[in-house]
Structures are given as C-alpha cells and as structure tokens.
Write a sequence for this structure.
C-alpha cells in the first residue's frame, strides 16, 4: 500500500493529515506580517535563554556528554565553540533553549512551542544551507503543530505524568524538519506517524529537581530529524498516530482520552495563528506561578519593609501538584530547578525583593535565610477567580505582624494577552540574558540578525550565535 493510498483510506482526514496538508502547502508569503514579526521576537527570546544557559553547569555537561561520541560534525551550538553532527547539535541546542525554563509558553495548550521546533530549525536548517525565510516558514509550521496538539489534550498530559512539551515536540520537530526538506503531504503525515512512536517525557523530575525536563525538546529534535529522513525515504508509518486505536491520545491519556478534542487541530488552521497568542516569560520560573509572582511584586511596593506574619498564595487548581506540592519540599528548594517549580519560594522572593530574575536562582540566593524563612510561611490554595487556562492567574494575601491584611489578584499574568511583551521588552530581556555569556556588541549583532532573519541565511545566524571562529 502506498503512502498516498493510506491517506485516501479514511473518508475523514486524520489530524495528522490536516497538519501535513497545512505544512506542505505553507509558503513564507502566506504568513501574515504581524505573525512574522511575533515569530522573530519569539526566536530572539529563545536565543537569549539559550545563550544564558551556558552560565550553568548543565550546559557544559550535556555538551561534553554528547561530544563524547567523538564524531566530527559541522553544526554549531548556541554560545559555544563545539561543532557536532546535526542531530547531536540539535540535541544540545534544545537543552540550551529550554534549560532555564525561561522560554515561551502557549497558555491554553500548556506547551513551550518554540523549544519544540526551533532546535530543528536551527541545526537542520544550517546543515541544509537553508535561508532565513525557509527557517521562519518551517518554524511557523512547527509552532502551530505543537500548540494545536496541546490544545487537543487540554492539559491532559500533565495530569497523567507527562511533560506536554516533551510529547508534542516530537510531532512539531518532525513537521519542522519535513518542511525544511520540502517533503510532500503524504511524507509529512508519515513523519508524524513515526514521531508518535518516540514521543515521551515523564515528569518524575519534579520529585527532586532533576535535569531531565531540559532534555525533552532536544531529544524530540533528534527524533524529528530522524522521522523526516525516514519518511523522505519511503518509511511507512501509521496514518492516524494521534486518534487511532492505541494512538497517542489513547496510550498517553488513558482514562482521560475521551476528554480530548481532536477537532482543535484543524479549527482555523491556516487562518488562525496560535503562534501570535503565545506568551513570553518575564520571570525564569514555571509559567503557572507568574500570576502569583505579579501579585507578590505589587504587594512588595505596598509593604515598604513591614514584617510579614503569614502569606496565602492562590493558584489554578490543576497546577497545585506541580508548583505547590509537596509543601515541605517546595518550601526549601535545594536547586535552581526545584526553585523554579516552587510557588512558596518564588512568592517569598518577590515579596522581599520586588522582582525575580536569573540571579535569584543562584546558589547564594537559594540559601538566603530571609527568603527561606518566609517561604516556610507561604500556604498555597485554589484560586476561585482563576482564568486558567486562558491565563495563569494568581493571588497573594499577606498578613503583617501589625495585623494588616493586603491582597492582590492578577487575572492576566504579565507577558500574556493584553500584557504581551512588545519588541522593546523582548529586546531588553534578550540583552540581559545574552550578556551573561557574550559581550554586549555580539549580543547586539545577534539581535539585529534575528530581527532581519528573512534577509540572511541560517548559516549566517548560527555563525553569529556560535563562539567558534566565524569562517
């Protein structure tokens, strides 16, 4: 049976067929100008996160572990001097982009879509000597794929123990790689069918702040490139990898499979660009905490140094098990990654300092006795006024030692909706992040290159991003 025959077998196109049809037909000229501008800002934001990651131990260790294969390669790494084979480079770049958990999130789908497709776009795009226009087109197709599959499951992956980005990134990476290769609709559908057999990413890292979440987008990039290459060479895969019997929804969601909305994949596809709805993070912590962080920062300015007796933080009910429980562990994080997923720690730091940035995750900040003492007095509960999942709302109530009670509730978290970061905000965030690793003049060159990405090659971009000699 040919691949084309498999597509025609079912009267109703599968979700993967819809995505394949959209991606195969997509041209650079089809992307609306406002969406294109947002795409470049999201890429710039992610690259800032990737550059900043090199300050942390995990970056060097993952690069060393991958380079230990000893295989020569030509693909560059973000903010590093090594060169690796394409799949190894995509793996490392994926870890760098997502490693600080400072990258973007589509709130309704609860996925990090740029991390789900940009590693492939950069590394595979460099190998294929693609133009920036081709990268942007493949990136846009990959973003819509990641977000729409996330919308289908309605947060269901998180409820059963999967990291949603770790799952959907396999499909997004496959579409991105397939688009860069110029595959047709049938081949793109096969690439997704292959990706369904590699898609995973469990959340057990939450127990101890382990590093494995950082690995998920990079591993998906390896799988996506592999899937696209296999599909290009005629490998036959399932045509209904999402909704089919024992497909992704049934196997990964189990009892929650009947809650999935498979129609969300095709709704408005090609006219409604969810890429443009994606939120960028002002704080380098789990996005679920951002509403509470906003509220705590507002209260900091009202407290004016007054001693705090007790704190109540209110969050969306479905997020409590990720960012507030078990309370005893969350109150005393022992690593930067544990702190990123601790509402208690983040709220305490925001109340005392009036902000939260990458320096607040350094060892000395994690050991701050004042923050830890207040963190132990933060109690978390369900926010009855939450707008979740449209926004990651949050509220904080502080009781002072004098008996004053102050409350703030943030319905639309900063960086989302009408509070979306604008170009000057994104550039400022990028410069602050990138300057941790590279000189300011190099950071400015990178920013300029990304904002005119449609006029340069991927190789030129990677040359500027890399610390390897520019030749």
């Amino acid at each position: 049976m040919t691949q084309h025959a498999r597509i025609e077998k079912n009267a109703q196109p599968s979700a993967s067929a819809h995505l394949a049809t959209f991606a195969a037909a997509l041209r650079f000229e089809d992307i609306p100008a406002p969406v294109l501008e947002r795409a470049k800002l999201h890429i710039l934001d992610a690259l800032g996160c990737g550059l900043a990651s090199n300050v942390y131990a995990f970056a060097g260790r993952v690069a060393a572990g991958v380079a230990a294969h000893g295989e020569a390669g030509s693909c560059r790494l973000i903010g590093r001097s090594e060169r690796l084979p394409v799949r190894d480079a995509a793996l490392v770049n994926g870890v760098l982009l997502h490693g600080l958990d400072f990258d973007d999130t589509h709130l309704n789908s609860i996925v990090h879509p740029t991390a789900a497709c940009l590693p492939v776009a950069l590394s595979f795009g460099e190998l294929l000597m693609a133009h920036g226009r081709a990268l942007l087109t493949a990136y846009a197709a990959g973003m819509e794929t990641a977000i729409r599959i996330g919308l289908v499951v309605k947060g269901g992956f998180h409820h059963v123990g999967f990291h949603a980005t770790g799952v959907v990134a396999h499909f997004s990476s496959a579409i991105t790689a397939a688009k860069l290769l110029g595959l047709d609709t049938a081949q793109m559908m096969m690439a997704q069918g292959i990706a369904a057999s590699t898609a995973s990413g469990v959340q057990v890292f939450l127990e101890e702040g382990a590093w494995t979440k950082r690995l998920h987008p990079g591993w998906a990039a390896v799988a996506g490139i592999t899937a696209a290459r296999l599909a290009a060479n005629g490998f036959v895969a399932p045509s209904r990898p999402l909704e089919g019997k024992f497909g992704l929804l049934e196997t990964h969601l189990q009892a929650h499979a009947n809650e999935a909305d498979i129609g969300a994949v095709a709704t408005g596809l090609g006219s409604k660009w969810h890429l443009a709805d994606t939120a960028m993070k002002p704080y380098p912590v789990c996005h679920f905490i951002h509403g509470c962080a906003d509220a705590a920062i507002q209260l900091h300015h009202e407290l004016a140094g007054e001693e705090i007796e007790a704190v109540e933080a209110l969050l969306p009910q479905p997020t409590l098990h990720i960012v507030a429980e078990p309370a005893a562990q969350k109150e005393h994080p022992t690593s930067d990654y544990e702190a990123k997923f601790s509402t208690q720690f983040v709220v305490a730091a925001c109340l005392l300092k009036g902000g939260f940035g990458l320096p607040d995750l350094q060892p000395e900040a994690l050991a701050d006795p004042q923050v830890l003492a207040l963190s132990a007095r933060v109690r978390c509960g369900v926010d009855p006024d939450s707008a979740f999942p449209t926004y990651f709302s949050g509220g904080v109530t502080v009781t002072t030692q004098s008996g004053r009670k102050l409350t703030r509730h943030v319905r639309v978290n900063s960086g989302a909706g009408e509070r979306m970061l604008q170009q000057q905000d994104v550039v400022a965030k990028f410069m602050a992040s990138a300057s941790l690793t590279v000189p300011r003049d190099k950071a400015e060159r990178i920013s300029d290159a990304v904002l005119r990405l449609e006029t340069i090659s991927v190789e030129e971009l990677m040359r500027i991003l890399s610390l390897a000699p520019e030749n």
About this structure: The first helix runs from residue 3 to 9. The radius of gyration is 22 Å. Confidence is low (pLDDT under 50) at residues 1-9.
